[in-house]
Amino acid sequence: MQKRITLLGSTGSIGDSTLDVVARHPQRFSVYALTAHRNGDKLVDQCLRFAPEVAVVGDAATAQDVERKLRAAGSKTVVSYGPQALIDVAKSDACDTVVAAIVGAAGLEPSLAAAKAGKRILLANKEALVMSGDIFMDTVRDSGAVLLPLDSEHNAVFQCMPRDGAQHGGVTKIILTASGGPFRTREPSTLVDVTPEQACKHPNWSMGRKISVDSATMMNKGLEVIEAHYLFDLPGDRIDVLIHPQSVIHSMVSYADGSVLAQLGNPDMRTPIAHAMSFPDRIDSGVAQLDLAQVATLNFEKPDYERFPCLALAMKALAEGGVASATLNAANEVAVEAFLNRRIGFMAIAQTVDAVLNALQNRSATSLDVVLEADAAARRAAHKIIDSLPVPA
Ligand SMILES: NC(=O)c1ccc[n+]([C@@H]2O[C@H](COP(=O)([O-])OP(=O)(O)OC[C@H]3O[C@@H](n4cnc5c(N)ncnc54)[C@H](OP(=O)(O)O)[C@@H]3O)[C@@H](O)[C@H]2O)c1
């Protein structure tokens, strides 16, 4: 049966890769809704190609512009805007599958709406799970939604997990691999001078700007440890991070008998996207087959927590529990944006997140409102700290 898709964040990097897979399989997939924030022109192009019923943007002015361009081109796609419109397309009866690919906390409420509505959710928006972990997973369980990870590491772990019904079936550890980003070997004392352009230049993956900076600080891996904790129900001390610069092994699962199962492939998000979209079938993703003879060497090393303090901060937030992960995430989002706007230096990202975690009291994440309050408080605290920091030269 054809899957009808709402693609939240269609104009982003994951959005592009998802639409590439959709276009390869018109018999299997059709598009119900596409959403963007401000990039109306790209959304118009996508609507003309994929003819969704609904398109959503962030504000009225962008909606008006998109609508005018669509009508001029003869498109019947209905255009709406704002956070409620995102929630509406995520929970609509007209779709069965929701690809959650909005970046950051803005993705939480529509992803949660999809979970409440019992959809098949393909989750790229790790921030949603980092913020609301137990609430999100409880909602998935209660509604009977199906949650499939799109993050390449979590998709790899999912592929290596036991399928025999035993919840953990002899699993001892999850090993999340990490490329180490663009600054793995850079002299630590020079990291203060890093520019946004350098931070966004990932050696192996082409991604949006926020996740690229998160990869450079390794906050991304920290967020992934938290994501893995909730997705696979394992404590933080059974989730290891291993630097693997080639990004060929996307992650591994260790078993009690000494076996380690790994998922390998070329670093291209279309592989995990195609896997999750067609699961349990396998379909062509457009990604070239892996040539191990050409790769020749696979290297591994331990992460350097001093060079990458954000990784340690995320582990600490996970260990603390409550709203600490939501606080960490919000502070990081504000700090990364400030870095991308050249308001603070690269090393000030970790400094800001650390200061916010220390300044705010942790509490239990008893409801979505509590999580959203923690998110707002962390953003206020982060802005205050950033205001007190010098502008980089
Ligand atoms: N890229 C990857 O390879 C990769 C891999 C694993 C996981 N992920 C995760 O996937 C998510 C998306 O990453 P990405 O790299 O695709 O990001 P991206 O390229 O920056 O795209 C983000 C998407 O979200 C939309 N958006 C931004 N702010 C929004 C808001 N306030 N409200 C509604 N929509 C908003 C953007 O719309 P506009 O274009 O209009 O701004 C765009 O469609 C992130 O959570 C990331 O951690 C990404």
Layout of SSEs?
Elements: E1 3-8, H1 13-24, E2 29-35, H2 40-50, E3 54-57, H3 60-72, E4 78-81, H4 83-91, E5 97-100, H5 108-116, E6 120-123, H6 126-143, E7 146-149, H7 152-160, E8 171-178, H8 196-199, H9 209-217, H10 219-232, E9 239-243, E10 249-255, E11 260-264, H11 270-278, H12 292-295, H13 309-320, H14 324-340, H15 347-359, H16 368-387
Parallel strand pairs: 1-2, 1-5, 2-3, 3-4, 5-6, 6-7, 8-9
Antiparallel strand pairs: 8-10, 10-11
Helix pairs in contact: 2-3, 4-5, 5-6, 6-10, 6-14, 9-14, 10-13, 13-14, 13-15, 14-15, 14-16, 15-16
The chain binds NADP nicotinamide-adenine-dinucleotide phosphate.
NADP nicotinamide-adenine-dinucleotide phosphate is lined by residues 9-15, 36-39, 58, 101-103, 106, 124-127, 151, 205, 207-208, 210-211, 269.
Catalytic activity: 2-C-methyl-D-erythritol 4-phosphate + NADP(+) = 1-deoxy-D-xylulose 5-phosphate + NADPH + H(+)
Binding site for NADPH: 11-14, 38-39, 125, 127, 208
GO molecular function, one term: NADPH binding
Notes on the structure:
- The structure is a single chain.
- With 393 residues, the chain is of the alpha/beta class.
- The chain has 3 domains: 3-149, NAD(P)-binding Rossmann-like Domain (Rossmann fold, 3-Layer(aba) Sandwich), CATH 3.40.50.720; 152-267 and 288-317, no CATH class; 321-393, Rna Polymerase Sigma Factor, Chain: A (Orthogonal Bundle).
- 47% of the residues lie in helices and 15% in strands.
- The chain has 16 helices and 11 strands.
- The protein has helices at 13-24, 40-50, 60-72, 83-91, 108-116, 126-143, 152-160, 196-199, 209-217, 219-232, 270-278, 292-295, 309-320, 324-340, 347-359, 368-387, and strands at 3-8, 29-35, 54-57, 78-81, 97-100, 120-123, 146-149, 171-178, 239-243, 249-255, 260-264.
- The strands form 2 sheets. The chain has a 7-stranded parallel β-sheet with strand order 4-3-2-1-5-6-7, with helices on both faces. Strands 9-8-10-11 form a 4-stranded mixed β-sheet, covered by helices on one side.
- The N and C termini lie far apart (58 Å).
- Bound molecules: NADP nicotinamide-adenine-dinucleotide phosphate (NAP).
- This is 1-deoxy-D-xylulose 5-phosphate reductoisomerase.
- Residues 264-380 form the DXP reductoisomerase C-terminal domain.
- It catalyses: 2-C-methyl-D-erythritol 4-phosphate + NADP(+) = 1-deoxy-D-xylulose 5-phosphate + NADPH + H(+).
